[in-house]
Amino acid sequence: SAVISQKPSRDICQRGTSLTIQCQVDSQVTMMFWYRQQPGQSLTLIATANQGSEATYESGFVIDKFPISRPNLTFSTLTVSNMSPEDSSIYLCSVGLGGQGKETQYFGPGTRLLVL
Amino acid sequence: SQQGEEDPQALSIQEGENATMNCSYKTSINNLQWYRQNSGRGLVHLILIRSNEREKHSGRLRVTLDTSKKSSSLLITASRAADTASYFCATDTTGTASKLTFGTGTRLQVTL
Questions:
Q1: Does residue A2 belong to the interface with chain B, where contact is any CB pair within 8 Å?
Q2: Does B106 lie at the interface with A, CB-CB under 8 angstroms?
Q3: Which chain B residue's Cα is nearest to A58?
């Protein structure tokens, strides 16, 4: 398994500003993911964070709005840029260990963002 | 989209009763997983069932999978107040957890 922490746990931001969310894992992992969960909704994958290369974004999400860094195998950041109230969501980091018998993802506690 | 549909959207039961929630999906999968989320926090993995399996148990949890109907069910027996949470199914087409697609979720409320 993996233990994942996220910072900040919550924040209230003004529209037009940006927020960077950090995700730290207690071991080296191959796969890291960022999800968005809008109020009362399910999880939507934003992107897969790739170590040493650009993130792979899902349809509807772009790098200019959600730049992602992954400088090593234990850490990643997601920035929510030029925020609007529609960006108010829970942002979740997860990791996948990969390999046979390791088909699950482990999730961080989430960052609850409110944009005013 | 591939996103699964879960029903019911919300379920309220009394402690000691059983809770059943269902998940339907659209394309072939390698496995299907169930996760629990307490009060908007991170998700916790509950159980995984592979496409060649029909039923799996873990403690008070029982999961079934019918690939011909593209559906799965999660049964929680003898529910407790601590089971109050949202439950999500997630489908994996790769078998490596490199891309999970989550269902719409069921909000379970267990009352004393």
A1: no
A2: no
A3: B99
The token duo for B25 is: 């999906």
How far is residue A26's CA from residue A59's CA, in Å, rounded to a whole number? 30
Torsion over CA of A38, B101, A25 and A89, rounded to 10 degrees? Answer: 0
Q: How many CB atoms lie within 10 A of CB A107?
A: 23
How far the first Cα of chain A sits from its last, in Å, is 37
Task: Say what the pLDDT of residue B20 is.
Answer: 98
Query: Is the separation of the CB atoms in B27 and B89 below 8 Å?
Result: no
Contacts of B103 in chain A (CB under 8 A): 42
B97–A4 CB contact, under 8 Å: no
Three-state SS for A86?
Answer: helix
Q: Cα B22 to chain center, whole Å?
A: 7
CA nearest A110: which of B87, B41, B45? B41
Q: For B49-78, what is each residue's pLDDT tens digit? A: 999 999 999 999 999 999 999 999 999 999
